[in-house]
Amino acid sequence: MKKSVLFLGLIYLIFISLGLPDSILGVAWPSMNSDFQVAASSAGIVAMVISIGTILSSF
Predict the structure, then answer these.
(1) Model's pTM, two decimal places?
(2) How far is it, in rounded angstroms, from Cα 52 to Cα 34?
(3) Is residue 15 within 8 Å of residue 54, measured between CB atoms?
(4) Residue 26 and residue 5: Cα distance in Å, rounded?
(5) In the chain, at which residue ranges do the beta strands (DSSP E only) sit?
(6) How far apart are CA 24 and CA 29, in angstroms?
(7) What confidence tier does 15 reach under pLDDT thresholds 50, 70, 90?
(8) Cα separation of 20 and 27, whole Å?
(9) What is the DSSP letter of 40?
């Protein structure tokens, strides 16, 4: 029984960690934009890197 609860907790943490970066980019981008002095179009590149990382981590 303990292994099943541990496994369920691990699955839950993985589920949360796969969805977290998408929402963090929207919140953090305005301050990143002003701190690093980059164009707003760079958010697309960052989003693409996050998406590729999410796909790779799901495999």
Answers:
(1) 0.60
(2) 25
(3) no
(4) 33
(5) none
(6) 8
(7) confident
(8) 11
(9) T
Distance in angstroms (rounded) separating the CA atoms of residues 9 and 17: 12
Model confidence over 27-38: pLDDT tens digits? 888 888 888 888
H or E element: which one contains 38? none
- Hunting for tokens 């707003």 — which residue is that? 40
Q: How far apart are CA 16 and CA 25, in angstroms?
A: 15
Alpha-carbon distances of 59 from 9, 37, 38, 56, rounded to whole Å? 19, 34, 32, 5
Residue entry with tokens 């996050």? 50
Position 47, amino acid: A
pLDDT band at 1 (very low <50, low <70, confident <90, very high): low
